[in-house]
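Could you join me in thinking about how sequence relates to backbone shape in a protein? Would you write everything just below, so we can both look at the same thing?
***
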Amino acid sequence: MRHVPGTFSIAARDPDANVFGAAVTTGTVAVGATCPYVSAGGAAVTQSYTKTEHGRDAVARAEAGERIDDAFESLLDADDHAAYRQVHGVGAAGEFAFTGGECVSWAGHRVGDDYTVAGNMLAGEAVVEATAEAYESADGDMADRLVSALEAGEAAGGDDRGEMSAAVLVHAPTPEFYHNLRVDLSDEPVSDLRDLLAEARRAKDQIRRETDAQFGDYPDEILDFGVKY
């Protein structure tokens, strides 16, 4: 098998807001293209020797009502190379994480209430622990908390080679600019992701002000994903 660079990531659920999200950073380019997946029923990440179908199928099954652990276990059981995979995620009724025995060290995961964290080829276990603890203590909405978690993991050592890309992906009843953000190549992708999140929020506020000034007090649903480009 071809060697695949390592990653650390988090998947989470906010049951009160009915929101699922995932965030990830890695030492290669464009991690947001293949690793994080979300739906109305779940959030999942596939990494190490990434198999995109595992993430895509897990959240689709979760949206259809299957438990996320049952979905992942079925997918891994049918995978001849499961020992090389690292997958994790959350659904409406539980969490799941798996680190195959052939993942590159350091590799491991942590499962909490409504979130999972996993990483491979990391500086050490402290990266996963810091990511989880930061998510638990962070303020803000799902996007803010996920980026805060990545920042803490990076500060704890992050990917053993340094990071090159990062992404945050959120599924919520009301979509926003900042629910699908990617930094595909950067010397400081997590920091740039934080800046991109702030800029996306600023852009939404600006559109709101400009639209209200021109047309009056329009309802928020008119501006879903910033209809006024």
Summary: Strands lie at 7-14, 19-26, 36-39, 42-48, 85-91, 94-99, 108-112, 115-120, 165-171, 180-183. Residues 225-229 have pLDDT under 50 and may be disordered. The longest strand covers residues 7-14. Helices lie at 52-63, 68-77, 125-137, 142-155, 189-215.
